[in-house]
Structure formats: structure tokens, C-alpha cells
Amino acid sequence: MDNIIQGISTFKGQIFPGQQQMYRRLVRDGQSPKALIIACADSRVSPEHITQAGPGELFVCRNAGNIVPPFTQQNGGVSSAIEYAVVALGVRDIVVCGHSDCGAMKGLMTPEALGKMPSVAAWLRHAAAAERIVCEAYPAGMDPKEHHRALALENVTVQLSNLRTHPSVAAALAKGELTLHGWFFEIESGELLAYDGEAARFVPFADEAGLPVAQASLTRRVAVPEYRAAPIAAE
Ligand SMILES: [Zn+2]
């Protein structure tokens, strides 16, 4: 705890005075983050650090395994964060960010290790589809390291699917006002992989090529052409 107390002291005495104007502006104008990032609670995976974002720039929701429970009638912290980000803040991008060496993904592979963590075990059931995909659709006999990496990558796409079940997300996607991203942070190399939804694969982020997206921002109504003539706000 000593390091944390020292950090608070340094922030208050040395950092905040130089940033006071910015913080005052953020209070005066309110927050308007451009993106919601749903990342793992792992202490080594800090969305603000990876993206070099400052206060007010990212709306962040973190939990074990960067999981997005599908929409249900029950209240939940992740669901509330998503709804608030989309409806109240009007974010234009949502990122689901997984990572290498993820303890939650190890837990999915070895459920017997979760005997004393019933809440974690129950939570990870939201990622069960990723485990089934790797067990049934990948080559048999993968070594545990390969299995673990495949699971963490598949989990990002499973959580993106869960994300689309939320009414606020579905509506924003249909209006062409939202883009979905799947990222994977490799802790050991600092590399960021981005999910390319069209190619259905993760590719390394490259400055010059831009960032591939999981689902692009496109107005989409399956009942077109019947309603083509009807104007909607996004057009
Ligand atoms: Zn993790």
C-alpha cells in the first residue's frame, strides 16, 4: 500500500497542479469520451496506458476475462456501462480487448482449479462458447499454450457477439452510428492485434494501414427496400 499512498501524494502535489485547468474543463463541459473499452481486470492490461489516453478520453469497463454478458432482464455492471456509454455519452466505438497470459482464460481451460472460486466459475460461463469452439473446431492435441492463446482470441469474438445482443448496441449499429473493435494485447511484446471482421482474423496493428475493425459503421436495415423511402435520423 505504501507505493499507492506515495502515488496519491505525488499526483496531488506534483501532477494535478499542472493539469488543474484540464480537470476544471472536464467538469465544466462534462465528459465526452469517444470510445468504450471493455478490457480484462488484469493489472498488466491498462487501456489508458496502451492507448496513451488521458482523463476524459476513454470510458472503461474492466472485469475478469473482458466478458460481456448477453442482454438479459437482470441488471449488471457491464450492461449498464454499455447502455450509458452508447445512449448517454454517444460513443462511436466499442472495443473488446483481450490479452495474452490471461488468468481467466486459464480458468476456463482448467475448471477444476476454480473449486474455491464459485463466482469466477459462474462468470466465466459467459465465455463457454469460446472454449467449445477451441475444443471442437481446432486441431486436436494442441499444446496448452496454443490452446490458451486460441481461447483468448476466440473469446474476444464471442464477447463481440454478446455485445450485439444489447438493444442499445443493436440500434446504434443499425443506424450506422457505432463501430465494433476486437483487440488483443500481447503483454510480452507490447503488440496490439486487431480483429478484421471481414477476413475473420486478427492482424497486427500497423500505423500506416490503419486499424481493421470487427464491424464497420454501416446503416443496416434488413427490411429495405420496403422502407428505403422512409428517412431516418442517420441519413
Ligand atoms: Zn485477463
SSE string: HEHEHEHHHHHEEE
Tally of helical segments: 8
Unreliably modeled segments: none
Backbone shape: globular
Average of per-residue pLDDT values:
93
Sheet with the most strands, sense and barrel status: 6 strands, mixed
Tell me the Rg in angstroms.
Answer: 20 Å
Q: Count up the domains.
A: 1
Helix content: 40-55%
Which CATH class is shown?
A: Alpha Beta
Percent strand equals 5-15%
Q: What is the level-2 CATH architecture name?
A: 3-Layer(aba) Sandwich
Can you list the ligands bound to this structure? zinc ion
- By secondary-structure content and strand pairing, the structural class works out as alpha/beta
Q: What name does CATH use for the topology?
A: Beta-carbonic Anhydrase, Chain A
InterPro entries: Beta_CA_cladeB, Carbonic_anhydrase, Carbonic_anhydrase_CS, Carbonic_anhydrase_sf
Function: Reversible hydration of carbon dioxide.
Protein name: Carbonic anhydrase
EC number: 4.2.1.1
Report on the architecture of this protein.
This protein is of the alpha/beta class and 235 residues long. The chain has one domain (31-209): Carbonic anhydrase (Beta-carbonic Anhydrase, Chain A, 3-Layer(aba) Sandwich), CATH 3.40.1050.10. It is 42% helix and 15% strand. The protein is built from eight helices and six strands, in the order H-E-H-E-H-E-H-H-H-H-H-E-E-E. The protein has helices at 2-29, 47-51, 77-88, 103-109, 118-124, 128-137, 144-164, 167-174; strands spanning 35-40, 58-63, 93-99, 179-185, 192-196, 201-204. Strands 2-1-3-4-5-6 form a six-stranded mixed beta sheet, with helices on one face. Helix 2 links the parallel strand 1 and strand 2 (58-63). Residues 40, 42, 65, 99, 102-104 line the site of zinc ion.
